Amino acid sequence: MKNAPLQRNRKRLRYAFTGAWALFRKFRDKDFSYTDCTSFAVMERLRLRTAFAFDRRFAAMGYRVEPAL
């Protein structure tokens, strides 16, 4: 039972990486890095709508960006 938190984290990480890879392939014509896509996947999973970022990639995906660009 003490490995249960580790198992949950593995599932979350697998979801993030799988989701990121799917987004990376889907938007291969965009200038998104794999790190950007990982952020998008995690934000989607957590239902976050605002990103603290200094580039326009998050805005291009429909997220609100702070500080405003």
List key phrases describing it.
single chain, mainly alpha, 69 residues, 58% helix, 3 helices
Write up this protein:
This protein has 69 residues and is mainly α. It has one domain. The chain contains three helices and two strands; from the N terminus they run H-H-E-H-E. Strands 1-2 form a two-stranded parallel ribbon. It starts with a helix and ends with a strand. The model has no long low-confidence stretch (mean pLDDT 88).
List the helices and strands and how they pair.
Blueprint: H1 4-26, H2 34-46, E1 50-52, H3 57-60, E2 64-66
Parallel strand pairs: 1-2
Helix pairs in contact: 1-2
Counted up, domains total: 1
Please report the number of helical segments: 3
- Secondary structure: number of strands: 2
- Tell the overall outline: flat
**What order do the SSEs take from the amino end to the carboxyl end, as H and E?**
HHEHE
What is the CA-based Rg, rounded? Answer: 14 Å
Q: Which class do the helix and strand fractions yield? A: mainly alpha
Helix content: 55-70%
Largest sheet: 2 strands, parallel
Poorly predicted runs: none
Strand content: 5-15%
Average residue-wise pLDDT = 88
